[in-house]
Amino acid sequence: MATSVRATSGGSPPPAAQPPAPSTGSRKQRPSGRDGLRSTLYRLDLKAVPYVFLAPFFLTFAAFGLFPLIYTGWLSLHRVELGGSAQWKGLENYTSLAGSEFFWNALANTFTIGVISTVPQLLMALGLAHLLNYKLRGRGFFRVAVLAPYATSIAAATLVFAQLFNTDYGLINTALGWAGFEPVAWESSKWPAQIAISVIVIWRWTGYNALIYLAAMQAVPQDLYEAAALDGASRWRQFLSVTIPSIRPTILFTVIVSTIGATQLFGEPMLYGGSVGISGGSGNQFQTLSLLMYEKGWVTGSLGQASAVAWVMLLLLLLIGGLQALVSRSNRSRSLSHDRNRNRAGRISTKAGS
């Protein structure tokens, strides 16, 4: 077999073929120092910066919310006097509260004032929001006007109402005298004093809740009202059958918030009672749990018992919130089952018609 070798111009054989250079496209290049720092900062910006923005809230909550809660729980298990050292007592503060008639009186007053002030307040707020939902002249002015009591200072409003309910020269007793009734002891009697305090709470919070209901009512689709009107439903029937079911979550929210506010009621009864406001009147006739806690802690100096009252209030709020959550869940499941049965009945009637 003949082999031919191609020679160069000088007669020498051609040089050996050089191996191909390795391809750098498939190999990942390491970034330079500046590019690596930039990518690291970019990753930190994506992952760490949100926590940096949230950190002030959690730090503030830990300092002024979580730590006082834990420290109050620790104090409730000790006997602590103002200026003295803490002595371990276990559950003695709670057992002493269970046997104290002042505690049960304050708990009963908190419950009664809460019911008297919350139920009429929410009912009036519903009616007021229903009226403001209509296309009235100057409704913008009325919507702002109903919020004026909420913007008023608690001290100013309570002092004005204390003058109105004054037993000797108050306007309320004067009007009752014109109508032929005897003067009412609005300060020294139990139920009149609680009614007067409830009136202050109702006056201050009705407009606030009315605006919350109004915002929820404006989110209800108008198609529901038009369909109800075509079926012959009156305004009252539309309010009961369309408006109330549509804003039920908002109503539950206002009930929870009002219950919390009623449990923590402090400013109105304290200012209404004047010099005996801390003790809830001369006979503790309107002393609430908040007033009892303040009296235990800063009048008698028993910080341990005051902390126990605070934790009892917290447990009551958690219990009430749990009960309201169970009621809301049962109502939601009942409405879902009702809708499911109605859809099933509609399908059965459609099959029967076909």
List key phrases describing it:
mainly alpha; 69% helix
Topology summary:
Layout: H1 33-47, H2 49-75, E1 78-79, E2 87-88, H3 92-98, H4 101-132, H5 139-145, H6 148-151, H7 154-164, H8 171-178, H9 190-218, H10 222-230, H11 235-246, H12 248-263, H13 267-273, H14 289-298, H15 303-353
Antiparallel strand pairs: 1-2
Notes on the structure:
- The protein has 354 residues and is mostly helical.
- It has 15 helices and two strands.
- It has helices at 33-47, 49-75, 92-98, 101-132, 139-145, 148-151, 154-164, 171-178, 190-218, 222-230, 235-246, 248-263, 267-273, 289-298, 303-353, and strands spanning 78-79, 87-88.
- A two-stranded antiparallel sheet has the order 1-2.
- Strand 1 and strand 2 form a beta hairpin.
- Helix 2 (49-75) packs across helix 15 (303-353).
- It is globular and about 80 Å long.
- The protein starts with 32 loop residues before the first helix and ends with a helix.
- Mean pLDDT is 85; it is low at 1-12.
Could you provide a short overview of the structure?
The chain has helices at residues 33-47, 49-75, 92-98, 101-132, 139-145, 148-151, 154-164, 171-178, 190-218, 222-230, 235-246, 248-263, 267-273, 289-298, 303-353, and strands at 78-79, 87-88. With 354 residues, the chain is mainly alpha-helical.
Question: Low-confidence runs (pLDDT<50, min 5 residues)?
Answer: 1-12
The helical percent reads 55-70%
Identify the overall geometry: globular
What is the makeup of the main sheet? 2 strands, antiparallel
Strand order within the widest beta sheet = 1-2
Question: Strand fraction band?
Answer: under 5%
Distance between the ends? 94 Å
Mean pLDDT: 85
Q: How many strand units? A: 2
SS-derived structural category: mainly alpha
The gyration radius over C-alpha positions equals: 36 Å
What is the element string, with H for helices and E for strands?
HHEEHHHHHHHHHHHHH
Count of runs of 4 or more consecutive helical residues: 15
